[in-house]
Design goal:
alpha/beta; Cytosolic phospholipase A2 catalytic domain; six-stranded mixed β-sheet
Length: 327
């Protein structure tokens, strides 16, 4: 998920995705921001796919280049050969994670999550990203302060990563249970999983870090609610017959994996609603419900169809500046 925040100075933040783990449309989050004129950005952060897009946003000064890199990564994720080669005996997860590690590492290389003092602020302009004139500071990996959210299953706690290996914490924030094994934190060895299990829209984290205004971009998937009422008991044999019989009435019932997934996200629902209804948060949700979380191959379609329908209602705009007394 995504969000942008404003500190006590006239500058805002952008943390990012609810269950938008691998939803390729989360790149639409940054598109929404690029269409908001003259919003100064102080910080970027996010959860899951939002952590990935937020990292690109913090690193790239060019929106066009950011989109190109996101597209290349999405295309790499559609490789069936790489997916098959990463399959493993499913004790901890279906995939070993080695292939996914390489894809994330190829994007961010050995960059670190850190911004040196004195780094120039960057503003979001209409259709492009512009940075302030470069200040005389040494080369650095990110232009904006950045944080990623993960779920520490060793300590049963939320982790906010503001320093360390960029690709590792982005990967950890995107690690879905059952698909990818937890990532061992190189600092303390704790097991890190997808941040969406504990905080799917970390606007509150941005707020705690000094933000006064947060633009939160929600690109998470919506749960199916139109399910079959099967009563007090459910026979798997009956379900199997319904699925195999082309003449039978179709039923909508959650499988075991879907039940476990919904249970994992229950704790995030109230937190998301509280953030969405807060007075410091401007909530945006692009029209993405027709796309699945793994629709990486629909990158171009998403950019064209969804990108042409920006979700801009309620977006914070900088207050008008008073006229110069000398003018």
């Amino acid at each position: 998920m995504g969000s942008v925040a404003k500190q006590s100075s006239p500058l805002p933040i952008q943390p990012k995705p609810r269950r938008s783990h691998f939803r390729p449309l989360s790149r639409r989050s940054s598109t929404s921001l690029s269409s908001i004129p003259s919003i100064p950005v102080d910080m970027v952060g996010g959860t899951s796919i939002g952590a990935f897009m937020g990292a690109l946003y913090s690193e790239e000064r060019s929106y066009s280049q950011m989109r190109i890199r996101a597209k290349q990564w999405a295309e790499d994720m559609t490789s069936m050969m790489k997916t098959v080669l990463d399959l493993t005996y499913p004790i901890t997860s279906m995939f070993s994670g080695a292939g996914f590690n390489r894809s994330i590492c190829s994007v961010f290389k050995d960059r670190q999550i850190e911004v040196l003092p004195g780094a120039p602020a960057r503003r979001v302009g209409a259709g492009s990203l512009r940075s302030a004139p470069l200040s005389p500071v040494p080369p650095q990996d990110l232009w904006l302060p950045y944080f990623a959210i993960t779920t520490d299953i060793s300590a049963s706690a939320m982790r906010v990563h503001t320093d360390g290996s960029l690709w590792r914490y982005v990967r950890a924030s995107m690690s879905l249970s059952g698909y990818m094994p937890p990532l061992c934190d190189p600092k303390d060895g704790h097991l890190l999983m997808d941040g969406g299990y504990i905080n799917n829209l970390p606007a509150d984290v941005a707020r705690s870090m000094g933000a006064k205004v947060v633009i939160a971009i929600d690109v998470g998937s919506r749960d199916e609610t139109d399910l079959t009422n099967y009563g007090d008991a459910l026979s798997g044999w009956w379900l199997l017959w319904k699925r195999w019989n082309p003449l039978a009435t179709k039923v909508k019932v959650l499988n075991m994996a879907e039940v476990q997934t919904r249970l994992a996200y229950v704790c995030c629902v109230r937190q998301l609603e509280a953030v969405r209804d807060s007075d410091y948060c401007e909530y945006l949700r692009p029209p993405i419900d027709s796309y699945g979380s793994l629709d990486f191959g629909k990158f171009a379609e998403i950019c064209v169809s969804v990108g042409s329908r920006p979700a801009r209602s309620g977006v914070w705009r900088p207050p008008p500046q008073p006229p110069c007394p000398r003018c």
